Amino acid sequence: MKWKPRNLRELARMIVGDAEHFPYRSSKYITEFFEDCELEFVHASETRPVWAAERIEEVLAMPHPTPSVMPNAFLRIIRRLLDTGEAEGDDADRAKALAALNIVLAREGWAAFYDENGRAELLPVSWTPR
Prior knowledge:
It contains five helices and two strands. The chain is mainly alpha-helical and about 130 residues long. The protein starts with a helix and ends in a 6-residue tail after the last strand.
C-alpha cells in the first residue's frame, strides 16, 4: 500500500509530536511508541519526522489480506496515536486529535473512529459508520 509523501509526513509529525493535539516525543519516546505498537524500530538521532515517515512507509508495505484492510501494525499505530491516556489540555476526549488524524487518513481513503468501547478503529471511507 503506497501513500502520498505529504500524508506520510503529516502522520509522522503526529507520531513525533510536531503536530497540534499530539504529545511531543524525543528519540527515546519515539522508540517506545513503536515498541508499544509491537514494532522493533529504534530511533537513533535521525531527523524525527523523516525517520517516522520512513517507518510508516515500511508498515504500509507489510502484508495485509485485502485492499480494504490495513496491515495490523498500522492499526496498532492508529490506536496508539489516539490513546485516550495521552489526552492533553482541552482535548480530554481526543476528539481534536481524531479530527486532525482523519484529515490525513481521508486523503488516502480511510477514516478512524472510536467504537462503543472507546477503542480506535480504522475503515475505508466508504464504510465509515454514521
